[in-house]
Amino acid sequence: MVLCFSQSKYIRDLLDIANLSSTKSSITPMANNCKISKHGITILRIPLSRDPL
User: What is the pTM of this model?
Assistant: First the structure.
């Protein structure tokens, strides 16, 4: 017996269970200076050219 899982099918099944399968998706912007880890989110400071080093 072979058991295969598909991430897209799993998500579709979850959306069906929550009655959200007919909703439209949207783009969710995220800051590009964030580092995500299992301990939380760290905002990284990116020095600008006018900042002293």
Answer: 0.40
